[in-house]
């Protein structure tokens, strides 16, 4: 893994690198170099398998973290590429041309986090939600409890009884 | 590849030509095309999802996968719960295979917290994962046969699955959702007499699988409808993120149990089951052989599993457990391929972010939409089940 990172640093500016375990590492790259770096990892370093693409909302730092997790099928190692993008006007370059399934991930991120990927096929089409009008629900500032209280009415609860009293009445109705 | 992706009408003059994007221009006013919804309530669909199909005659021209019928926002729910409170949630992400969720979640947590799991617990976890694989394959086999008109196979395999669910009930207290794995280990040792009953069940499965082979796999109708149908080109494996039996049937020996060994798999003797032709029949056969291999693995595990010993490492109070800040990815091989949990902790009592990587995410959307074009409408259910997908893990 260290050799791969050293090779990468010759071509790209890697902000930081953290080795989580022997076969898993995470690096941070800037938004501008990320797609080039991921393409390099896929085409020259052999990270052919896109395991997942997801986002983490660091609301207190006002940015989203995009994580591209790549797997090397021969060396059996994983590398997570972390990219920080601003929460304001959240936008990232698309990688749908590199992996077919990336468009699904990007469509989901658009819907759930409000991160745009211009050029990604069907990115604005609803994926899971239909007719959603609130802020994207996976953002940290979306309050699920408040939303459900506002949207759904509480059902009246069942009639409750004190067990001792209830059983007494049932077993000894004449007393 | 010499084989066609799907059998289609040979006379292509009946069909409009494709445009520059490789699709046909659909004009509903021409009255040639018909749009139908395959699911979400349909016996030939795997769970709660639907396919929006555009048909010309009985051939599929275009397909769009629709999910969201089962969205419960698991990942968001987990951000509002303490780690231990997530266990009843994670198992519901993939209903027929809850244990892979439990394992991935627990092992990611253990890695971040630096906890070593006792050896007996590792063996028990391996056993539970293989039992889960076995019952899931059995349920799938009934589905695959049923989608092509063979109802009897489902009756047999669901009976066999029930035997394994009995063992689950005995070991964990639950039939479908087990919540048996906890951070640091598992909840209990093997009950008395478990080995004997499990051995009898495995023998029963072996006996029945011989009949399944004859009735399903040697059946002319099954062969005619599946051989050469729905071929996955090996060149698609990485571009589409294909894993598990779908990849192995195409000759690519991808198996997390071998590639990134976990638990006690390095101490077990097995080789990933690989196919060649990559059609529906081969995928079914790879799963059948994988099922038999699982039976063998459970026998190996039963021979090595200790009867006593520590089953749970010492952990902090789970109600006030602050998992150290960091992030990791934990994976396992489920029946459908690579299953994984990406966990981010910010050092508080609540997970910052959990992302579930289910194999259906890639198999049921991008891959299915590509494969289904030019399929006959009667083969859609068979093709879809052959990819072995579960919608909850797409919209988790």
Task: Looking at this protein, list some descriptive labels.
heterodimer, A: 175 residues, alpha+beta, Beta Polymerase, domain 2, five-stranded mixed β-sheet, 5 strands, 25% strand, B: Cytochrome-c3 Hydrogenase, chain B, three-stranded antiparallel β-sheet, 12 helices, 8 strands, 41% helix
Describe the protein.
Chain A is an alpha+beta fold and 175 residues long. Chain A has one domain: NADH:ubiquinone oxidoreductase Nqo5 subunit (Beta Polymerase, domain 2), CATH 3.30.460.80. Helix content of chain A is 29%, strand content 25%. Chain A has a five-stranded mixed β-sheet, covered by helices on one side. In chain A, a hairpin with a 4-residue loop joins strand 4 and strand 5. Chain A is elongated. The model of chain A has no long low-confidence stretch (mean pLDDT 91). Chain B is an alpha+beta fold and 396 residues long. Chain B has one domain: Cytochrome-c3 Hydrogenase, chain B. Chain B contains twelve helices and eight strands. In chain B, strand 4 and strand 5 form a beta hairpin. In chain B, helix 4 packs antiparallel against helix 10 and helix 4 runs antiparallel to helix 12. Chain B starts with 32 loop residues before the first strand and ends in a 10-residue tail after the last helix. The interface between A and B is large, with 34 and 38 residues.
Short description:
Chain B: It is a peripheral membrane protein. The complex is a heterodimer of chains A (175) and B (396). Chain A has helices at residues 2-11, 31-43, 102-112, 144-151, 163-171; strands at 14-21, 24-29, 49-58, 63-72, 77-86.
Based on CA atoms alone, the radius of gyration of chain B comes out at 22 Å
Mean pLDDT of chain B: 90
Number of strands of chain B: 8
User: What CATH architecture of chain A do you see?
Assistant: 2-Layer Sandwich
| CATH fold-level assignment of chain A | Beta Polymerase, domain 2
Rounded to the nearest angstrom, the radius of gyration of chain A is: 25 Å
Task: Please summarize the sheet with the most strands of chain A.
Answer: 5 strands, mixed
What is the overall silhouette of chain B?
Answer: globular
Protein structure class of chain B? alpha+beta
